[in-house]
Amino acid sequence: MTSKSEYYSSLSWFRRCLAMLNWRPVVDYELREIEFDRREIEYKQRMQQLQKESEQLKIEDEQRSIAHEQKMRQLDELDSKLDALLCSSSTSSTPPQSTPDNSEA
What is the CA radius of gyration of the chain? Predict the structure, then answer.
């Protein structure tokens, strides 16, 4: 915030004389206006920064989502391969046991 002495020194000689005559309402109003403008600029800068951060978070979230989907697809593929292996091994792994025939005895 600009101090009153800084403000007075920045004024033209005529305005400085008026300020020294204690014309406070004008000086105080102008100081408040300067402060308001400064805060408005800071607010806009903060909003822009927040928007950039929000966009960055959305991008990161999308990237995480894509990576998650890829991992899930890989797991599904591995699961289907494992199922196929288990099915093929269970049908051809052990031959049927031979039982003794009654005719041989």
Answer: 41
User: By the 8 A CB rule, do 2 and 31 touch?
Assistant: yes
| Helix, strand or coil, per DSSP, at residue 3 | coil
Q: Which helix (DSSP H) or strand (DSSP E) does residue 99 occupy?
A: none
Distances (CA, A) of 83 to 78, 93, 94, 95: 9, 15, 18, 21
Those residues whose C-beta lies under 8 Å from the C-beta of residue 98, and which sit 6 or more positions away, are none
Read off the tokens for 105.
């005895």
pLDDT digits (tens, 9 = 90+) for 9-24: 777 877 777 766 765 6
d(CA 84, CA 14): 94
pTM check: above 0.85: no
DSSP-derived secondary structure for 59-78 = HHHHHHHHHHHHHHHHHHHH
